[in-house]
């Protein structure tokens, strides 16, 4: 009882463990190195102007390895701080909102926790979006393959021709994409972890040596369970938000030319109606599964190893 009273009297705090930055940085680099070619294919499929997508050998001409890894330095240079801000702010916000809004006298139900996960995810997205957006703009335009290979020259060109709006093109559209995505993703991911990770506490350190769960429908190592939870959550969320992400990719690679977001939507509708908004869904899911699986498994494993 006294512990409950002390918890209730304690003000809501935001604490960031420095090792979270290390774990998130390692996860960002690992995921990007392994999955960047799939991301390049996704961008070229989504931004191809024609109604029909050409064969892969036309989308990715020779030298193929160089084309597949176009924009990789930009992606790594931005994704390390971006993912660090994202995961660190998510963890801190989750604890903060949990202390403020969840009941202190008994264990909160999953339904009670869902708004906390959503608010924490939205906070993380809005904060990290200032870093993600310039990365997405430059990376996508380099991956598209018609603006050279130098990130420095491209950045100068964007700034000279479009100003700061060009660098942060699509920030609000990105949030429109990722607010529903992260709301669904974190709700599913935290729900899966609560069910399948023995002893998991969304607001405390992970169990160092968890015992097998008798209720789990399979016998898998804890690391593999983290992977399965993350890839299932991200696959479902990616399917729901693909139409908005498709429009975002075209808008960020347009250089501000054309009819804007409304014009992109109309052009897609003319090309193929509802089916046109599913373009790139397969490759997006194929990219999201290893990207999210690798990054979250590395992140969660390092957290468990450190015990934070």
Q: What level of helicity do the residues show?
A: over 70%
Under CATH, the topology is which?
Mitochondrial carrier fold
Approximate shape: globular
Could you tell me the strand content as a percent range?
under 5%
CATH superfamily: Mitochondrial carrier domain
Walk me through the structure.
This protein has eleven helices and no strands. The chain has 308 residues and is mainly alpha-helical. It has a single domain, classed as Mitochondrial carrier fold (Alpha/alpha barrel). The chain crosses the membrane at residues 68-90, 110-132, 170-188.
Question: What labels would you give this structure?
Answer:
single chain; 308 residues; mainly alpha; Mitochondrial carrier fold; 73% helix; globular; disordered N terminus
In brief:
Helix content is 73%, strand content 0%.
What is the topology?
Blueprint: H1 2-9, H2 18-47, H3 56-59, H4 64-68, H5 72-101, H6 110-144, H7 151-167, H8 171-196, H9 222-252, H10 260-272, H11 281-306
Helix pairs in contact: 2-5, 2-11, 5-6, 6-7, 6-8, 8-9, 9-10, 9-11
């Amino acid at each position: 009882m006294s512990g409950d009273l002390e918890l209730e009297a304690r003000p809501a705090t935001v604490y960031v463990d420095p090792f979270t930055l290390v774990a998130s940085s390692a996860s960002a680099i690992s995921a990007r190195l392994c999955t960047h070619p799939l991301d390049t294919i996704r961008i070229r499929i989504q931004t191809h102007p024609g109604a029909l997508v050409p064969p892969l050998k036309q989308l990715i001409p020779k030298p193929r390895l160089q084309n597949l890894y176009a924009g990789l330095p930009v992606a790594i240079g931005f994704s390390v701080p971006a993912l660090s801000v994202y995961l660190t702010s998510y963890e801190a916000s989750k604890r903060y909102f949990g202390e403020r809004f969840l009941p202190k006298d008994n264990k909160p139900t999953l339904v009670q926790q869902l708004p906390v996960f959503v608010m924490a995810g939205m906070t993380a997205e809005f904060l990290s979006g200032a870093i993600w957006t310039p990365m997405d703009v430059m990376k996508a335009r380099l991956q598209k393959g018609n603006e050279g290979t130098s990130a420095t020259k491209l950045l100068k060109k964007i700034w000279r021709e479009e100003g700061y709006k060009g660098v942060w093109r699509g920030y609000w559209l990105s949030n429109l994409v990722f607010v529903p995505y992260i709301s669904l993703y974190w709700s599913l991911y935290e729900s899966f972890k609560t069910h399948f990770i023995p002893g998991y506490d969304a607001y405390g350190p992970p169990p160092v040596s968890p015992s097998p769960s008798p209720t789990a429908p399979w016998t898998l190592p804890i690391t593999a369970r983290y992977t399965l939870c993350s890839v299932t959550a991200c696959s479902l969320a990616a399917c729901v938000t693909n139409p908005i992400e498709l429009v975002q990719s075209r808008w960020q690679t347009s250089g501000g030319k054309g009819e804007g977001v409304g014009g992109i939507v109309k052009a897609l509708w003319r090309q193929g109606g509802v089916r046109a908004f599913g373009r790139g869904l397969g490759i997006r899911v194929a990219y999201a599964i290893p990207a999210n699986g690798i990054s979250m498994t590395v992140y969660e494993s390092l957290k468990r190893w450190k015990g934070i």
